[in-house]
Amino acid sequence: VTLYQAVIRGENNSSCKWAGLTCLGNATIRLSAINSVTGFSSEYPGIYVPPGSTLTIKTLDDDDGFDGHLVAESNGWGAGIGGGTDIACGHIVIESGSVFATGGSNCAGIGGGNGSNGSTRCGKITINGGTVFAKGGQYAAGIGGGSSCISMSISINSGVREVNAKSGANHNVPIGKGYNGSGASVTLSGGNSYDYGESRIICSADMADYRTYNDGKLTWTYRVVDGEAELYNRGYSVIPAGTSGEVTVP
Fold first, then answer.
1. Average pLDDT of 164-187?
2. CA 168, CA 35: separation in Å to the nearest integer?
């Protein structure tokens, strides 16, 4: 399905028990121009990916080279893209385009919704390219799990331009599991991985240039450029020139 200047504004009405868009089986959304999708019933996501299904999002190759945009939001208690309240979700793949996803209360921007005692599950999330901005609701990750959600793996690969994720209130895991959730291992291209992230990840550089440092709890991925280190997990932090082994993480 190609979205071209599409606007779907969900009406939060108890009679509208559906998302803004629902994938029936495996589906691909191609983005052209600027598009926005908001879920209907408050417990549903903006775009629903049922368990066992895979949604792939990519930009349409227009002659003018414009990068297709997608804005996806919940209307209350669902993910921007993924699942909802006690509604599990399947796999999500972002190949290209600019994706802006905002989750509702207790739900991820991209990924899982709000679960009761671990009843809600989220499939794999893979970001191979494009620009992604994702914000979770309270107790939820920006990318990954909602509150009490069981999450699978999250992979962010070297073709992306930028991934910027933010967790909601009362939670400090922008990329990974939600509050009281489980799972959600996070892997960067090149085999480097971490458990918790802060906001910004840029993978466009050759991952071979990066090093890792384990502080006993987390694995930090960084590279030294002109005496400063680009630190994936905490944005950009200054590290003294000549640092090559141990890294002090702020």
1. 84
2. 24
